[in-house]
Design brief:
With about 375 residues, the chain is mostly helical. It has 2 domains: about 80 residues, no CATH class; about 270 residues, no CATH class. It is built from 14 helices and 3 strands. A 3-stranded antiparallel β-sheet has the order 2-1-3, with no helix packed on it. The radius of gyration is 24 Å and the shape is globular.
């Protein structure tokens, strides 16, 4: 094995490290593939691997009433092969980077979780502002004058507004989040307060009240609560029941965190994703498919996006739990150093993380 040295203290990676890295990276990769396949199944009409298993009679699945044929059967095989190929590629990647410490992967995953919630923050910020303006213009009857009669009528429909306003803003947010490396939760908390204060001002001073004002507060508050959870986990700032934990040795704490992440945290996130996205009528997919809106008159057209907050929460927490698992296994293995990605770091490569580790402490990894 290739040795990794810290302050001239030799450290060798082992087969255990390879297995742990393969499992951890596969968990995240399969979760991302699950989300992609969810889109292909319910938005593009692909059959999915469950229907393929039913068609083939595998794993005790009952045969389909209408067997898959032609293109549908081909697409089903492509989805199954995609999952298998992804795991094989992860295993191959781990083998060719066998000298890579667990902490490097942990820091990379933590940076990826930060990128997800950073992009989500920018998305709800931009969509909240833009949708509030559109809803105000629509309520007051100005939308048709500003956008034209035809476009004004289309912007008053949730499906059109979601497709041609919200989704492009989400893409813009993904780009902004890559370059603007700050999480911005302080600003979102302030905006929630200002949005609530605005309701008080316009209601009691100007006697003006509309549903979209309250919807904006709920939209931003839900985002603040759910998106900040993964960030809080990486900072180890969640409230613990420390009756026993505080008395554990460092290895005992690491063992508790590793087992808790693998047995409780990651399965909980998978449960949210699977239960929320298993079918068309599930709690996440159903609102997204129909662009569900609030029933309280002329509110914001963002209720369907609030359902997706659960998916963002589950994915970001799953990635962060996986990072946490790797970090604590590294502690158990006695791997040198405790590098942490900066809260603003997003999608760092190994060179970025090595640089971050050097900035935080005189820690260097030297290939021998």
């Amino acid at each position: 094995m290739t040795a990794v040295t810290l302050h001239s203290q030799p450290w060798e990676t082992s087969k255990t490290d390879l297995v742990v890295r393969t499992v951890a990276l596969s968990i995240v990769a399969v979760a991302l593939a699950f989300l992609v396949n969810n889109y292909l199944i319910f938005w593009r009409g692909w059959p999915g691997i469950v229907n393929l298993f039913s068609h083939l009679g595998w794993f005790g699945h009952e045969p389909l009433q209408t067997p898959l044929t032609g293109q549908a059967l081909t697409l089903g095989w492509l989805q199954l092969i995609g999952y298998v190929a992804l795991i094989v590629l992860i295993a191959f990647y781990v083998l060719i980077t066998r000298d890579r410490p667990l902490r490097i992967d942990s820091a990379w995953l933590s940076g990826f979780a930060s990128y997800i919630i950073r992009a989500a923050f920018w998305a709800v910020l931009l969509i909240g502002f833009v949708d509030s303006i559109l809803s105000f213009l629509h309520v007051e009857g100005f939308l048709v004058y500003v956008a034209g009669e035809e476009l004004g009528k289309q912007l008053a429909q949730s499906r059109f507004r979601g497709t041609y306003v919200h989704y492009p803003l989400i893409l813009v947010s993904l780009v902004i989040a890559y370059f603007v490396r700050t999480l911005g939760f302080t600003w979102l908390a302030l905006l929630v307060v200002l949005a609530e204060f605005q309701i008080v001002i316009v209601r009691f001073i100007f006697s003006y009240e509309q549903a979209f004002l309250g919807d904006l507060v709920r939209f931003w508050y839900a985002a603040l609560f759910l998106f900040a959870s993964a960030y809080t986990l990486r900072e180890e700032a969640h409230v613990r029941v420390d009756v026993l934990y505080t008395g554990f040795s460092p290895r005992g704490k690491a063992r508790t965190n590793a087992i808790g992440s693998l047995v409780l945290g990651i399965p909980l996130c998978w449960t949210i994703l699977v239960v929320g996205m298993w079918g068309k009528a599930t709690i996440i997919n159903a609102p997204l498919l129909v662009f569900e809106t609030t029933q309280s008159g002329f509110g914001l057209y963002v209720k369907y996006l609030m359902a997706s907050f659960l998916a963002v929460y589950a994915l970001s927490m799953l990635v962060q739990f996986t990072s946490y698992f790797l970090s604590n296994v590294a502690d158990l293995r006695g791997e040198p150093g405790r590098p942490h990605a900066e809260s603003g770091a997003g999608l760092p490569g190994s060179d970025d993380i090595r640089s971050e580790m050097a900035d935080h402490q005189p820690t260097t990894f030297i290939k021998q």
